[in-house]
Amino acid sequence: MWAESQLAEIELLTSMFPTREELELTDQLALAELRDYVEGSASTDVILSCAYPSEYPSVMPEITVRCGGLSRAQQTQIHADLNAFLMENCQGEVCVLSAVDWVKDNLQLFISRSLSAAPAPVKESSSPRSEEVFSRLWIYSHHIYNKTKRKNILEWSKELGLSGFSMPGKPGIVCVEGPQSACEEFWSRVKVLTWKKIMIRHREDIPLDRQGEDSRTVESIDSLRKFTGFEEAMFDPHGNRGNHMDLGQLYQFLNEKGCCDVFQIYFGIEGR
Question: Domain RWD: where (predicted)?
Answer without folding.
Answer: 8-110
